Amino acid sequence: MLTARTRRLAPGDPLHDRALVDLLPDTDVLSWVRGGDGIVGLGRAARFDISGSDRFGAAREHWRRLCQGVRVDDPVRLPGSGPIAFASMAFDDDPGDSVLVVPEVVLGRRAGTTWLTTIGTAEDVPSGGSAALRDLRDAAASRAAPVRSPGRVDYAAGQLSAAGYRTAVAEAVHRIRAASGLGKIVLAHDLLASTEQPIDARFLLGNLAAKYPACWTFVVEGLVGATPELLLERTDREVRSRVLAGSAWPHDGRGPDELARELLHSDKNRDEHEHAVRSVAASLGPFCDRLRSPAEPEVIRLHNMLHLATDITGRLDGSAAGRADLLDVLAAVHPTAAVGGTPTEQAVREIRELEGMDRGRYAGPVGWLDADGNGQFGIALRCAQLGTDGADARLFAGCGVVADSDPDSEAAEAAAKLRAVQEALESGR
Ligand SMILES: C=C(O[C@@H]1C=C(C(=O)O)C=C[C@H]1O)C(=O)O
């Protein structure tokens, strides 16, 4: 029998006072942080590797069974307190390799409240004796191994080169224009980085968090990134999604104000955005008795990009659909037309054929959930999959392709998106 014991931490405790991203030991950390708030996890109380088209259902069953066997001692009662799992789901069904992990130690922070949860057997939880907790305390006392730079970074084409990507985009435009019923296909490609020294995930997380404060910075089993796109957040019956699609990036000396204005008035970008908003609203609709989607998008400005953004909010209804598990709602919304296309299934088939690569967990849902069904999941974008031998990573970026897309421009957009992780790898802290 596992016990999950949560305690609120008081000011004066370094785990309370220091920024979450500065509290990570040099171990296999799990993290989901935005601004000062978020959740970091250490150690593994359980890990489930799942794959295939029913990966969301399999994850739901593993989590449900695990929660049934946990004795919860949680006076904090906030979303993310008590037992939690991190999940990172594959974009595609085949092979669909995904992971659900339950950390032994969780440090959470939300609007000024910081809590510590330990998950383990009854014997090791009260004594607080796990190695993961000692590692966390050491990090808080600045005794963790210092954050290491990876040194020199070299790049090579991935499974789909930049030139191959341009060709794939041109073909996608052709197929969309051929009145095939296709409205949008989101195509991506990858880039391999190899580094002089092993990549310290903390180095990437710290650099990404510093440059992208509006993004959700994450690491789950070697997938590290800073995503601007919130796929689904659930707090009790309230759900929220931040849909992004339609982008611009600083180039040719054009300032962000000019780019933002152009973006809002660009028919091509508005079209891309509309596809994504409609897909999220359509898949959330059946679960909700109230759904709000503003008529006009806004522009969000990041260090490397500007995006059209729409925040959709809803309330889960009291019916069976409204009581669905968070993982079931995720299965319904993924993939949105921000990373798949329209119509979804046809677009995903085109992606497989035109990209000819496995996206892995890039563009899939990544985040955490708790035992009450609350959680936050982003779309894993602006990210890299760290290699198992430590000194290499696979970076990904993609763009929505519609009838009016220009292959050169999409290739430049993907390159601008790749820069987020490239700069984080290359920069000093
Ligand atoms: C696919 C990516 O980004 C997505 C595609 C966008 C677009 O085409 O304009 C914008 C934001 C994301 O929804 C990526 O970053 O790899």
From TrEMBL:
Question: Ranges for the Chorismate-utilising enzyme C-terminal domain?
Answer: 163-417
User: Which domain of life does this protein belong to?
Assistant: Bacteria
Q: What is this protein called?
A: isochorismate synthase
Family the entry assigns: Belongs to the isochorismate synthase family.
Kindly give the Pfam families that the UniProt entry links to this protein. Chorismate_bind
Q: What is its EC number?
A: 5.4.4.2
Q: Which GO terms describe its molecular function?
A: isochorismate synthase activity
| Entry's transmembrane regions | none
The alphabetized UniProt keywords are: Isomerase
Q: Has the keyword Isomerase been applied to this entry?
A: yes
Q: Which organism is it from?
A: Saccharopolyspora montiporae
Alphabetized InterPro entries for the sequence: ADC_synthase (IPR005801), Chorismate_C (IPR015890), IsoChor_synthase (IPR004561)
What does it catalyze? Answer: chorismate = isochorismate
Q: Respond yes or no to whether keyword NAD is given for this record.
A: no
